[in-house]
UniProtKB/TrEMBL annotation:
Protein name as it appears in the record: Laccase
Lineage of producing organism: Eukaryota, Viridiplantae, Streptophyta, Embryophyta, Tracheophyta
Family membership noted in the UniProt record: Belongs to the multicopper oxidase family.
Stretches assigned to the Plastocyanin-like domain: 10-124, 136-287, 404-537
Catalytic activity: 4 hydroquinone + O2 = 4 benzosemiquinone + 2 H2O
Described function: Lignin degradation and detoxification of lignin-derived products.
Organism from which the protein derives: Aristolochia fimbriata (White veined hardy Dutchman's pipe vine)
Cofactor(s) required, per the database record: Cu cation
């Protein structure tokens, strides 16, 4: 294992897409940001310097941060933001993980432009549990807004109106040829015939689950959220924001007389407004010259080949989505076991959904005198003005957060009994759940889908969890648990809570610190669909959170 040093300079850069230029926040002037590459076991040290007017913090999405919670990054949860002119060094060791993850800004909506791939290779001389690919290519999905995203979210929070939708989706920052004024900004995947490529797919979009497909090519899924899965073939994938998926692409055996598009567009069950456009990229075949000449030249294909486009599921194809997620299973082999907690110490039932603020004294300015909120157990999380982790570590939680989440009695939701608007009013509070070290936790998340149906990609910091069950309608606490998969459930860090349904997860609380959990649809996070877990120290020295680094930013 080695230490890998990175310097991330947060600076403005003018970028043009769709014939529209704007100055955006970037890392090192790059959009998308630089790739981090490391091996399992490596120590990664990233010095972040803020040279823009906005406060910033960065999050290493999916990295477990064992005993390094100070490096996790969500603003006001594990740290105060890095202010203009200041620096912070994120220092963590990658323990027991290998695969594709990503990093992104974790404050306001800055992750719309501040994000990049993280590739964690296996330890040296440890092979993949699948055929060695000829090449590996990260493809990070994003969203491009012509408008300034900070202005969009500020307005959405003040007026309660839905935010402007994006103007395009992107592959590695490029919208592609299906948008106006965009064909020169097209992602090109150059391949040779008869080879296997590993595509590292990352959904860094702000607000939409995405279907992805490549015309006339089938894909083999081998990994989700940096955990190997039992390989399976599919023409189309579904990836929610916050999820990553590795697939093997086997190219056609001989040079094809055609050009193929890859494309992504949303899976959206809601009636609300969303960007229903399609990003496309091109798969370009190159023939290596067959001569034994020592000069290797790529011969481009002849121009004007017929163009094939992939067929993507309908925007609201929930049966595809359900079927796809049920196919994801852990490898569960002796080398890569699925350590699913077989028994449970702490059980939780959380409702997740959209709601409204009560708005005392008619203070709300939104449509019809309401203001959008989103909540867990009808608690809409209020961001504190100092970091939760600091408050916890120094025993100064008073006035920062309370530990009575879920509220007492916990909010019970029932599709057959609850009707709006009575069950949509939220409390605005900063509440956490405290867990003893090594608690085996089961959490059922029930979607309430009353104000606009939408599935919620719930992301948990600091842990991977096992998705032991999912279903539609009300969760039945007698009938459903016996059907849980405790053998080979998929292990991941982000799961879609199906619209009109529920999902059950289990995890071992073996990581002391404060861990954020939130919907990875940025607009829902902004409206309060978030909470935090406090995991106490264990007794042994290696079960305790060390003190903060001396350069930890102050609020
Ligand atoms: Cu990818 Cu809390 O984030």
């Amino acid at each position: 294992a080695v230490t890998r040093h990175y310097k991330f300079d947060i600076r403005m850069k003018s970028v043009t897409r769709l014939c529209h230029s704007k100055s955006i926040v970037t890392v090192n002037g790059k959009f998308p940001g630089p790739k981090i590459i490391a091996r399992e076991g490596d120590n990664v040290v990233i010095k972040v310097t803020n040279n823009v007017q906005n406060n910033i913090s960065l999050h290493w999405h999916g990295i477990r941060q064992l005993q390094s919670g100070w490096a996790d990054g969500p603003a006001y949860v594990t740290q105060c933001p890095i202010q203009t002119g200041q620096s912070y060094v994120y220092n963590f060791t990658i323990t027991g993980q290998r695969g594709t993850l990503f990093w992104h800004a974790h404050i306001s909506w800055l992750r719309s432009t501040v994000y990049g791939p993280m590739v964690i290779l296996p330890k040296r001389n440890v092979p993949y549990p699948f055929p060695k690919p000829h090449k590996e290519i990260p493809i990070i999905f994003g969203e491009w807004f012509n408008a300034d995203t900070e202005a969009i979210i500020n307005q959405a929070l003040q007026t309660g109106g839905g935010p402007n939708v994006s103007d395009a989706y992107t592959f590695n920052g490029l919208p592609g040829p299906l948008y106006n004024c965009s064909s020169k900004d097209t992602f090109k995947l150059s391949v040779e015939p008869g080879k296997t490529y590993l595509l590292r797919l990352i959904n860094a979009a702000l607000n939409d689950d995405l279907f992805f497909s490549i015309a006339n090519h089938s894909l083999t899924v081998v990994e989700a959220d940096a955990v190997y899965v039992k390989p399976f073939q599919t023409d189309t994938l579904l990836i929610t924001p916050g999820q990553t998926t590795n697939v093997l692409l086997r190219t056609q055996p001989t040079f094809p007389n055609a050009t193929f598009l890859m494309a992504a567009r949303p899976y959206a069950t809601g009636l609300g407004t969303f960007d229903n456009s399609t990003v496309a990229g091109v798969v370009e075949y190159y023939k290596q010259p067959s001569s034994s000449s020592s000069i290797s030249v790529n011969i481009p294909p002849p121009k004007k080949l017929p163009l094939f486009k992939p067929t993507l599921p309908a925007l609201n194809d929930t049966s595809f989505a359900t079927n796809f997620s049920s196919r994801l299973r852990s490898l569960a082999t002796p080398q890569f076991p699925a350590n699913v907690p077989q028994t449970v110490d702490k059980r939780f039932f959380f409702t997740v959904g959209l709601g409204t603020n009560p708005c005392p004294g008619n203070a709300c300015q939104g449509p019809n005198g309401t203001k959008f909120a989103a909540s867990i157990n009808n608690v809409s999380f209020v961001q504190p003005t100092t970091a939760l982790l600091q408050a916890h570590f120094f025993g100064q939680s008073k006035g920062v957060y309370t530990t009575d989440f879920p509220s007492n009695p916990p909010f019970q939701f029932d599709y057959t009994g609850n009707i709006p608007p009575n069950n949509t009013m939220v409390d605005n509070e900063t509440k956490v759940v405290v867990l003893p070290f090594n608690a085996r936790v089961e959490l059922v998340m029930q979607d309430t889908s009353i104000l606009g149906a939408e599935s919620h990609p719930l992301h948990l910091h600091g842990f991977n969890f096992f998705v032991v069950g999912q279903g539609f309608g009300n969760f039945d606490k007698k009938k459903d648990p016996p059907k849980f998969n405790l053998v080979d459930p998929v292990e991941r860090n982000t799961v879609g809570v199906p619209s009109g349904g529920w999902v059950a997860i289990r995890f071992l609380a073996d990581n002391p610190g404060v861990w954020f959990m939130h919907c990875h649809l940025e607009v829902h996070t902004s409206w309060g669909l978030k909470m935090a877990w406090v995991v106490l120290d264990g007794k042994l020295p290696n079960q305790k959170l060390p003190p903060p680094p001396s350069d930890l930013p102050k609020c």
